[in-house]
Specification:
Length: 298
């Protein structure tokens, strides 16, 4: 079947990892989990701001939401669903999948999925591991995802990075277990390396035209949808500063935060966007829509 809008790019997937600024893995050495409840939570106002940005640009997105956040902010979960976005799981307590054994991961996934489904009133089929923490040492995590009723994962970053990554894994969606897709966040192939081009700190670091060009390469050269991700705290210029963090973590966390909302607005307007499940699982929820039909240019 040909794309009905031949000159246009494939639809890309917009995703938000719903967590607060003090839950970021790089900050874990400086803020104890036991102190999370004492931190000023800013996630609800930031998610509401994102919902407004998406409404203004008529984009539907996927929200990979922490169970810990859902439990404390049930209205946030209901707002996401009510506005037509996909509710998906980021696990319960933002523990890296690579730090858990099978039973602990199963518990984390089951707890988050049940909580989100209960609050949202929708089935949750997608999961993104905190810090893209599925890699060559814990591929068994895919078995646990399939066993716990997930239909897709977006948990592998096919790059070399100091905290995560599996540079030799496929760059685009593939069936990793029967009935379970892995949908890696987007990279651009340059020579023999994969460069990250899917959001987070890289999007804030690079000038916007460079990020736009990288994503267009994926749409026009690879002819694949791109997967973009960001966090609610990445548009929050007034968040409390974690001054005790090391210089590298502070740089990664705060670089260009003041410019990010305007950039995201532009990004939402410059590309076609949709939810992960709609783009990759098709109308009946069956795998098979992973590769879009070829683009035909007149
Ligand atoms: Zn996260």
């Amino acid at each position: 079947m040909l794309d009905p809008t031949p000159a246009r790019s494939p639809r890309n997937a917009m995703s938000i990892d719903v967590e607060d600024y003090f839950q970021v893995s790089a900050m874990a050495p400086y803020i104890r989990r036991a102190d999370w409840d004492a931190c000023e939570c800013r996630v609800e106002r930031n998610v509401n701001r994102i919902l407004q940005l998406l409404a203004d640009t008529q984009v539907h997105a996927t929200f990979f939401t922490l169970g810990w956040i859902a439990e404390r902010y049930p209205q946030l979960v209901k707002n996401i669903v009510a506005q037509g976005h996909e509710l998906a799981s980021h696990g319960y307590g933002h523990e890296r999948a690579s730090d858990l054994d099978r039973d602990a991961l199963r518990q984390d996934l089951t707890r988050a999925k049940a909580l989100l489904e209960d609050l949202g009133g929708v089935e949750v089929i997608g999961y993104r591991a905190p810090s893209f923490s599925i890699g060559k040492n814990n591929l068994w995590a895919f078995d646990v995802l399939a066993e716990t009723g997930h239909r897709y994962s977006s948990s592998v970053y096919p790059i070399a990075h100091d905290h995560y990554g599996m540079p030799d894994s496929p760059r685009f969606a593939y069936e990793v277990r029967p009935g379970l897709l892995e949908i890696p966040v987007t990279t651009v192939r340059m020579g023999s390396r994969n460069l990250p081009s899917s959001g987070g700190g890289y999007f804030r670091l690079l000038p916007y035209p460079v990020s736009r060009w990288l994503m267009r390469c994926v749409n026009t050269v690879d002819r694949e949808p791109a997967i973009f991700y960001f966090h609610p705290w990445e548009i929050d210029v007034d968040q409390p500063r974690i001054v005790q963090a090391d210089a590298k973590s502070r740089f990664r966390h705060y670089v260009n935060i003041g410019r990010n909302e305007a950039r995201l607005q532009q990004l939402l307007r410059d590309f076609r966007w949709g939810r992960m499940d709609h783009i990759f699982l098709g109308p009946n929820g069956a795998p098979g829509a992973a590769s879009p039909p070829p683009i035909v240019t007149a």
